[in-house]
Design goal:
Largest sheet: 6 strands, mixed
Strand content: 35-45%
CATH topology of the largest domain: Rossmann fold
Number of helices: 8
Oligomer: single chain
Strand order of the largest sheet: 6-7-8-3-9-10
Number of strands: 21
Length: about 375
């Protein structure tokens, strides 16, 4: 049963184009659901509409099967963690955590105390109850905001880019802690981010947004392996997928996708358009290959040694490309090198719509893919 459901929801402001267009999705009870996309795509607006902080222009929002379009925020049983933590500087950690429930007469003083102790223990802030926010680090302030959501005991928790103000090491630590808390408490969590690493490592499912429209919904690894279009393919994955235009060429009753003098790919389908877009992930360009692999002779104009991986940049037909390998490789810039590419690891997209095309075969079954076979 869906705990949250949006049906054909749109949002627009006066004299402005629509911020959201016909958004429809559902979130199951206990699910960690990620909204990901570039700045301005409508992620936070969706979150604020669920919380009741923004009106819905058109469409329907259901919470626990109840129409919630006009439901007051306090009646939605939802907690929210903001990007800037939203802590009161004059209050102690204890007072900040209890702020949301302090006026609720239905909750006894003893129960409030028990909830506070449990929440502070979960976020490891037992020793900071009497501190003010200015005495805390960024990570500790974020934990206070989490404790405030926990103490409300709301079954649904919304998070709006909660880790964006933290450094890389702390973000990694907090990702793990938030995921563990969500699972431990059985929360239904909707989490907004523009960081694809957060999306890939934390979510049960991801919804990718762009310009107010849903691009794709699915499990993280599914979206990575089977992107719906060039936007999803470029947004999920680092470095992003390489793209290049290919022209159909007929020769000796066979069809080829021609990219350059050194890259012409035989295809097993009947092409119905003169041009396509080929996508290749950087990690699929290898330094060693098989006899049937396609070979690319390139000159690396960029070498990035990151310790755990090596990234090179090169140019192909005027396009900037990147290749990536695990480990440390001794590669010098401006020296010629050969890269190997399997045809089975190439994605094909419509040059007009940018949607992924064609089918691949897995275990004898035909399944929609994006890989040329």
């Amino acid at each position: 049963m869906a705990q949250i459901q949006m049906k054909h929801v749109s949002k627009s402001y006066q004299k402005q184009a629509a911020v959201l267009n016909e958004i429809s999705f559902s979130v199951e009870k206990g699910e960690f659901f990620i909204l990901v996309g570039p700045s301005g795509c409508g992620k936070s607006t969706i979150l604020r509409m669920i919380a009741g902080l923004e009106d819905i222009t058109a469409g329907e929002l259901y919470i626990e099967d109840q129409l919630a379009n006009d439901l007051l925020p306090k009646d939605r049983h939802i907690s929210m963690v903001f990007q800037n933590y939203a802590l009161y500087p004059h209050m102690t950690v204890r007072e900040n955590v209890l702020f949301g429930i302090v006026q609720k007469r239905a909750i006894s003083k003893q129960e409030k105390k028990e909830r506070l102790e449990k929440a502070l223990e979960l976020v490891q802030l037992q020793d900071y109850a009497d501190c003010k926010p200015r005495e805390l680090s960024g990570g500790q302030r974020q934990r206070v905001a989490l404790a405030r959501a926990i103490v409300s005991e709301s079954p649904i928790c919304l998070m709006d880019e909660p880790l964006s103000n933290l450094d890389a090491k702390l973000r990694s630590q907090m990702r793990t802690e938030i995921r563990q808390l969500q699972q431990q408490l059985g929360l239904t969590m909707i989490y907004v981010t523009h960081d694809q690493v957060e999306a890939m490592t934390m979510g049960d499912r991801i919804m990718v947004l762009n310009k107010g429209s849903i691009q794709q919904i699915g499990e993280p690894i599914d979206i990575y392996n089977h992107p719906a279009n060039t936007f999803v393919a470029s947004f999920i994955g680092s470095p992003q997928m390489n793209f290049i235009e290919a022209t159909v060429m007929q020769q000796y009753k066979k069809s080829y996708l021609n990219i350059s003098s050194q890259l012409s790919i035989p295809i097993s389908f009947f092409p119905n358009k003169p041009k396509y877009i080929i996508g290749i992930r950087p990690e699929h360009l290898r330094l060693k290959g098989n006899p049937e692999d396609i070979q690319l002779n390139v000159i690396a104009d960029l070498v990035e040694q990151l310790g755990n991986e090596t990234i090179i940049g090169f140019e192909l037909e005027g396009q900037k490309w990147k290749a990536k390998w695990n480990g440390q490789w001794t590669i010098r810039a401006n020296e010629p090198m050969t890269l190997y590419l399997s045809k089975k690891e190439m994605y094909l997209f419509d040059a007009d719509t940018h949607e992924r095309l064609f089918y691949s075969y897995k275990d004898g079954q035909r399944e929609k893919g994006g890989i040329i076979v």
